[in-house]
Design goal:
322 residues, four-stranded mixed beta sheet, two-stranded antiparallel ribbon, 8 strands, 52% helix, binds protoporphyrin IX containing FE
């Protein structure tokens, strides 16, 4: 793999990269990151729809879409409102708002997957640790913590009994594949939805528009997942330029002509409807104190833009810009 990534940043180049027959989601010589080999995260990573291509990916994708489609808008909305009211009940600081934004999508999915009710806070921490070891750029410590979290999440999922999990098992036809991809749903939903809620709250501070319009504006102007990666599986061409086997491609999901907030092509996000419903319900339930939004920094991440709010007294000089 060469060090310098090829960059796709125009509408045409992004569409080409995300539907290219010779670009894959993983380098051919490292389908699972070396740091995860021999850990509980190895088999989960190898089973994720997001980390596979070809027939395996398309079959899994159909199964996941069918399981997600099985839940109607009203059920997702009502579950989100219930979970959000529970989580927001104790919300009194900017730091707790940050945690709420990460926790809400995880807890809504956990509710419908039927993950046991005890210690939701620990569950959210485990998902955040797992996200760190799957997302690009994790340190050795983060990879190790993520691998431990993967084992705990696997144990939790073995006890799950919700209808979303039953559907996943039925559609995937294989319980361990369903468990891995249920964990995948928790991790895929977490950062993107937290970023969408956080950015919408910031925009609401600047513009008087409906929550629907604000959510749309965020998705069109500053998508919370702003880049993704692909790898050349053989020598090929992209955007009229040669690409060597193994070379990585950094794909910008916001181009001057179009926003690809939920991706494009075979790996396009199957959770868009869920993300929009969860974000909208969150905005309707939250009762924000304006000062909670006045200080934030961006989550340390190569591909997600999530505002993390904090109290002014923590670092008076560290103010993010939207
Ligand atoms: C605002 C919130 C969200 C954003 C911005 C977002 C964005 C994305 C993007 C850009 C991709 C494509 C990645 C790529 O092609 O490399 C993706 C894939 C995916 N997303 Fe989302 N997502 C969000 C919420 C969700 C939710 C709530 C779920 C689950 C209910 C979900 C499940 C998935 C899955 C399973 C994939 C992998 C699909 C595949 O590889 O075929 N996402 N998401």
């Amino acid at each position: 793999m060469t060090a310098c990534p090829f960059s796709a940043a125009s509408r045409q180049a992004v569409r080409e990269a995300l539907s290219h027959p010779h670009l894959g989601v993983r380098p051919t010589d490292e389908p699972v990151p070396m740091a995860l080999i021999g850990t509980p995260a190895q088999s989960i990573f190898a089973s994720l729809v997001r980390m596979n291509d070809g027939v395996r990916q398309s079959e899994l994708k159909l199964a996941i879409e069918a399981a997600l489609d099985w839940h109607g808008d009203d059920e997702i909305r009502q579950t989100t409102v219930d979970v959000a009211q529970r989580l927001a009940g104790s919300l009194t600081t900017a730091e707790q708002l940050t945690w709420f934004n990460y926790a809400l999508p995880v807890c809504v999915l956990a509710e419908l997957l039927g993950i046991a009710h005890r210690d939701r806070a620990t569950l959210v921490d485990e998902v955040l640790d797992f996200v760190r070891c799957i997302a690009p750029g994790g340190s050795a410590e983060q990879m190790a913590a993520g691998a431990v979290a993967a084992g705990k999440l696997q144990l939790r999922m073995q006890q799950a009994d919700g209808r979303l999990f039953e559907q996943l098992c039925q559609q995937c036809g294989d319980r361990s594949l369903a468990i891995a991809n249920a964990i995948g749903l928790l991790f895929q939903a977490c950062e993107g939805t937290a970023g969408l809620i956080g950015k919408t709250l910031l925009l609401a501070n600047q513009r008087h528009q409906s929550a629907e319009e604000l959510i749309l504006a965020v998705l069109q102007q500053s998508p919370p997942i702003h880049t993704t990666r692909r790898f050349a599986v053989e020598d090929t061409w992209l955007d009229g330029k040669p690409l060597a086997k193994g070379q990585s491609v950094l794909v910008h999901l916001k181009t001057p002509e179009e926003s690809f907030a939920f991706g494009y092509g075979a790996h396009r996000c199957p959770g868009e409807r869920w993300a929009r419903i969860i974000a909208l319900a969150a905005i309707s339930v939250l009762n924000i104190k304006p000062e909670w939004l006045s200080h934030f920094r961006w989550r340390v991440s190569q591909n997600a833009r999530v505002p993390e709010f904090y109290s002014a007294k923590e670092h008076a000089d560290d103010r993010g810009d939207f």
